[in-house]
Amino acid sequence: MHDMDGPMAGDERGMADPSATLLMSGALGPYGMSREASGTAWQPDVSEHSGLHRVSGDWTLMGHAVLNTVYDRQEGPRGGDKAFASGMAMAIARRRFASGDMLQFRAMLSPDPLMGKRGYPLLLASGETADGATPLVDRQHPHDFFMELSASYSLKLGARSSAFVYAGLPGEPAFGPPAFMHRLSIMDSPEAPISHHWLDSTHIVFGVATAGLVMGRVKVEASRFNGREPDQHRWNIEAGALDSTALRLSWNPTRTLSLQGSWGRFVAPEQLAPGENQTRWSASALYTRLSATGWWSTTLAWGRRSTGHANLDAFVLESAVKRGAWTVFARAERTENDELVGAGGHHGPAFAVAKASLGFVRDLRVADHVSLGAGALLAFNFVPDALEPLYAGDPKGAMAFVRIKID
Questions:
Q1: Strands 102-109 and 146-158, sheet pairing
Q2: Which pLDDT score is estimated for 7?
Q3: 141 by DSSP, 3-state: which?
Q4: Is 374 inside any structural domain?
Q5: Residue 307's pLDDT band (cuts 50, 70, 90)
Q6: Is the dihedral of CA 373, 180, 37, 92 positive or negative?
Q7: Residue 1 lies in a domain
Q8: Residues 6+ apart with CB under 8 A from 251
Q9: CATH value at residue 149
Q10: Average pLDDT value for residue range 75-97
Q11: For the chain, how many structural domains are there in total?
Q12: CA–CA separation, 145 vs 300, rounded Å?
């Protein structure tokens, strides 16, 4: 990997193919494409990027897809089992102009709505609703079919600087680390994090506009967006006022490290609490190393949700190692959650709960750009004494999955 932070990092000196120059250029500024993750978020410059690429005239087209078929089993009276499909398909079209400016369109779709409105069992998770009236507790909600439909334009200001705008319906505002399904440290796990609604649930908002500046290894950006979480109708495109605000500062001090801190003011984010606003904070560090045989990536993140009556924190540490065909991943989380025993959409007392999971996947290349994988994970859930009667102690969870990747 080359350090892409030199004079016009997109020029990739030594690459004779101009299409390769375009492929390696970031959409938002003069740095390597590998720095970019979900929305406008950054990851370490050495992060692995995979996908199909094709040049058509002045445009470069890129695509990537992964489909998981999962069997999920969660122990205890609040658990259950379910087979479901999850994943995503992403397409990107970008054009770089002679001035160095860049135009990009990105679409991302998900099969999640096929799993049903109640999603899948996931102990200690909460957030959103299946029917517009009942909160989802100890379940992970399905993501919308349209995960992202966005456009961005970056204006080259200098050899190491740019200004950019980004808009999506849906899209992702400038808050938090990259969404969990885009973080190299855990993207191979089919299990959503219980910290999702502290750190990265905003990866799908129905209406967002972001403006930012890139200055070498630093990016500052601000978003106005629709703060309401998606409703139970997973196949449609919603619309709402851009009534919420987010600010984010990102810094990649080295090619292996990416740091961010962000703040957001969310107007009525929860469908079942329309009069309640939230303030959220987030900080994260992503570290990645590449080798000739694979990579190692780790994320450490903290998030806080604040309302007028409570400050609730979440912490997550996750890491994955890839060596050849094998990938091993692990995650440990702790959240302060006031939705586990609430009723009728009203929050109850807050409890500190934790989860730790460990899993693996083995991939087999079956054709050019196509691989099949099989894996499994085991999760351990930890609840305080007050919740043990509801969960019958500290129950476990497990998943087995097969997947197909097109990259």
A1: antiparallel
A2: 32
A3: coil
A4: yes
A5: confident
A6: positive
A7: no
A8: 217, 218, 219, 258, 259, 260
A9: 2.40.160.10
A10: 96
A11: 1
A12: 29
